[in-house]
Amino acid sequence: MSYIGKLELKLKARELREKGVSIKEIQNRLRVSRSSISLWVRDIQLTKKQLEKLYLNKRTGSLKGSIIAAMNKIKVREELTQKIIKEGRKEVGTFSKRDRFITGIAMYYGEGSKTDGAVSFTNSDPGAIKFMVNWLREFCKVSEEKLRGSLYIHDNLDKIKAEKYWSKLTEIPLKQFTKAYIVPNNPHRLRKVKHLYGVFRITISNTNLHRKIMGWISGVINNSYV
After folding, report:
1. Higher model confidence: residue 47 or residue 194?
2. Is 195 helix (H, G, I), strand (E, B) or coil?
3. Beta strand 199-204 with 148-154: parallel, antiparallel or unpaired?
4. What is the C-alpha to C-alpha distance for residues 118 and 140, in angstroms, rounded to an integer?
5. Same domain for 66 and 30
6. ∠99-101-106 over CA atoms, to 5°?
7. Cα gap 133→44, rounded to integer Å
8. Which CATH number do you get for residue 114?
9. What's the predicted TM-score (pTM) here?
10. Which of 23, 40, 62, 90 has the highest CB neighbour count under 10 A?
11. Contact residues for 169 (Cβ-Cβ < 8 A; gap 6+)
12. pLDDT for 31-89, tens place per residue?
């Protein structure tokens, strides 16, 4: 089997598994060994609905038992995840104005541009973008007309829908968006996470503001564990 042929089979196997098709059915369709298919799709977690469908299609007790066990594991994992998240939120508690100020500095230090000349923050997470655009308004006193938005998105996704999404989230008018950067999608690259709305960047062309933020970062870093 050629490399290209094997890659195509692997991609097809993953596509079928993501749709909830059983390992045995994928084996029958693609005529590939069960061990290879199991290896190719081992990181794909089926949803409850998909597991229930597989359960209804199984006839042997052992297979039914394995499906039930998998469903129980998902339930336990979800309950534990929610418990940990709830505990984490409780530990954080209520945010003061200074808490928001320091958090924004830390977030900019991690994901903001360090190049002198403009303030720029890039992320794909809506929560991070929402927090930072509000932080810029609150602590940097950025005027609304100075805010610029830009989109980085693959060409197989909906650019217009994505821009409208980010505009609504940030309250930055579409007329203040710069030209989107469209990236060719590679169908042979396996991505675990797909950003339907691309990656968003907030930019303010203000050298002095950028230097001030760099000063805030320096103040936090140099005084945290003195």
Report:
1. 47
2. coil
3. antiparallel
4. 13
5. no
6. 95
7. 35
8. 3.30.1330
9. 0.66
10. 40
11. 126, 129, 130
12. 888 888 888 888 888 877 777 777 666 654 555 666 667 777 878 888 898 999 899 98
Range of the domain at 72: 45-93
Q: Are residues 101 and 168 in the same domain?
A: yes
pLDDT, residue 4, reads 45
List the structure tokens of 153: 């998105």
Q: Are residues 154 and 114 in the same domain?
A: yes
Q: What confidence tens digit (pLDDT) does each residue in 86-143 have?
A: 999 899 888 899 999 999 999 999 999 999 989 999 999 999 999 999 999 999 999 9
135 and 63 in a common domain: no
Angle between helix 3-18 and helix 23-30 axes, rounded to 10 deg: 140
- Same domain, residue pair 77 and 179: no
Q: How do the residues of the chain divide into helix, strand and coil, expressed in percent and rounded to 5?
A: 60, 10, 30
